[in-house]
Write a structure and sequence with these properties.
CATH class of the largest domain in chain A: Alpha Beta
Shape of chain A: elongated
CATH topology of the largest domain in chain A: Rossmann fold
Number of strands of chain A: 12
Radius of gyration of chain A: 26 Å
CATH architecture of the largest domain in chain A: 3-Layer(aba) Sandwich
Order of helices and strands of chain A: HHHHEHEHEHEEHEHEHEHEHEHEE
Largest sheet of chain A: 6 strands, parallel
Distance between the termini of chain A: 63 Å
Helix content of chain A: 40-55%
Oligomer: homodimer
CATH superfamily of the largest domain in chain A: Response regulator
Number of helices of chain A: 13
Strand order of the largest sheet of chain A: 2-1-3-4-5-11
Number of domains of chain A: 3
Strand content of chain A: 5-15%
Chain lengths: 339, 339
DNA sequence: TTGTAGGCGTTATCAC
DNA sequence: GTGATAACGCCTACAA
């Protein structure tokens, strides 16, 4: 029941605490004989160092804080998966927090993590976030921050992202090459940056094909509820523009909302209208018709983010300089039956 | 940059550390005047107590450990969502770990959490888990354990579950009442307990309708990959039994694999064969045809589990007795177009 | 090679 | 009402 401490070992072996500590950490300046005695007893009593005491002394908690908008999301849960796996490999644990897309909660949670003295923070910022004082605060307290997926341009730190603009360009370019002529865009919100970039990619592709951008073909989510917004906007679009022959949606959820509406109205996909999604979550391969989409690395994004953060943490420890990294992960088109 | 400590406040105000500590914690035996001075300066300097030092002293980390088989799963991510939200309300943080359905990893992770000195552990055990030494170990070290969803019968602790047997009974009973006569069961593995119970519910419903149980109509997942196993078993079943008119699957994933195969083979659901799922994840409402399923509380399961655990933790603090709770959350049938 | 002593920041006990 | 003092368990100069 009672935990055995370094003190207990010390008394039982009549060896000082410091020698015990050194022996257990494999320092060189302990005689082989006493080292063996110590290790043996430690093993026998199932001694494990008290990580809290050691944290207090070393200022390391071997803990990383992660803040995401929501965990109930195929993409984010895969990212977290990657983070937990990678962190564990290096002996780090993950404290997970959700901002629920709210800036005030995000601020509160950063402060919680600071108080908890995590060794580093991984964050995908909320759609509402534009200020950075809370993040700067963490940095000022000596806690490195790494952003992933939804990042802030105006904050200087390592970032793990995809090239949203390029990916969107490729998707729309594909549609145009395939012969679709009048392409609507579903999404087009002004936050987060990803939405903007995907809209820009859409515009670029149109331009590259000599097609004029038509603002009226951009449908913004009214309720921040991808599936239902997709459903709703599909209806709206059909009322307003009968000539649309393809839709590029900013997420698979939106796209699936669209497919659902079209199914209800018996509109054939892709014969009448093609639909392109973004993210490649599991469902997109299973829905009917299966959804063409942009494959976005997720597990990998998590593990790389952790590695970059750990690098920075280790540099800090050794007082070495660390140059922030911006890692752009490759995306690819997955063509299925909806286009 | 440098964190301000209780010592700094003490020196600046010429008041002892102990008084500072008491004042900040709102103890009664500090004069109003000095309390105000202390609080004021603390606020001004943005003082926050060092949680590690306090943990060392109080043996509380305000941290809960959570182990689940996998986070990439609609049900579990909702449960975690509920846990994080509820824990945060009470000032607790969540460390999340995945067992990946492996017993050895589960053991390792329990030990990690013990070492981290979390105040309590929430676990949904892996399919491989039957031994309980690792869990007993946590209890012996004074860390309460609460099980949820996938629980162990042979371990004495609080448990938050659903009545799998009853839920399965209701689903199959519904099918039989609706006129389906020959019903196959997809799932039927011997671990975890949930599978067994759902199989038992299936059997009970048959019996209640005077139908003899036929072992050959039970299809077990060959590869532990619900979607593909459902797909595979649908094919197999069709080859073996042309007279089946309904399937009760143990998860929505399996059911959706089945739907997918039937769609490929142009078998009409529910006209030729009805399909019933289990769990009501988002996808089941979106797939075509939409899937009848058992609604299983998820977010709520997480928040309740946290509450039960915190209750136990608080009782332990006060040395009060705590009676383990077994909370059975209600399920309900959701009837859609697949039946 | 081993041991001593002090400190990390907080809390709790017990005098004053 | 306030303050000295001793833990909590570990780490690390520095001394022996």
């Amino acid at each position: 029941m009672e935990k055995v401490t370094i003190n207990d070992l010390s008394k039982m072996l009549k060896v000082s605490k410091s020698t015990i500590s050194k022996a257990l950490k494999g320092y060189s300046d302990v005689s082989e004989k006493t080292r063996k005695r110590i290790v043996k007893l430690a093993k026998k009593l199932n001694y494990t160092p008290n990580s809290i005491a050691s944290s207090l002394k070393t200022h390391q908690t071997k803990t990383l804080g992660v803040i995401i908008p929501t965990i109930v999301h195929h993409f984010f849960s895969k990212v977290i998966d990657g983070m937990i796996c990678e962190a564990e490999k290096h002996g780090f644990l993950i404290i997970l927090l959700q901002s629920d897309e709210r800036f005030d909660l995000e601020v509160k949670q950063i402060n919680l993590l600071i108080q908890k003295q995590v060794d580093g923070i991984l964050i995908s910022v909320s759609n509402q976030t534009s200020a950075v004082v809370h993040l700067q605060n963490a940095i000022d307290k000596g806690i490195p921050v790494v952003m992933f997926d939804k990042v802030l341009k105006n904050f200087n730190c390592s970032k793990i992202i995809i090239d949203d603009k390029l990916a969107a360009f490729e998707a729309v370019d594909y549609l145009l090459n395939k012969g679709y002529k009048r392409i609507a865009h579903f999404g087009g919100m002004l936050t987060p940056q990803n939405s903007i970039d995907r809209l820009l990619g859409y515009k670029n592709a149109l331009k590259a094909h000599g097609i004029e951008y038509d603002q009226r073909l951009v449908y913004v989510n009214p309720n921040n509820d991808d599936f239902n917004d997709g459903f709703y906007n599909a209806k709206k679009m059909l009322e307003e523009h009968r000539d649309i022959d393809a839709i590029f949606a900013i997420t698979d959820s939106i796209a699936i909302g669209v497919l659902k509406y079209f199914e209800d109205k018996n509109i054939k996909v892709p014969e009448q209208i093609a639909v392109f999604g973004f993210s490649n979550w599991f469902m997109s391969s299973v829905i009917t018709p299966s959804l063409s989409t942009v494959n976005q690395p997720n597990f990998e994004m998590g593990s790389i983010a952790v590695n970059v953060l750990l690098d920075e943490i280790h540099c800090k420890e050794k007082n070495e300089a660390f140059a922030f990294k911006k890692i752009v992960l490759p995306t690819s088109l997955i063509i299925r039956k909806s286009t």
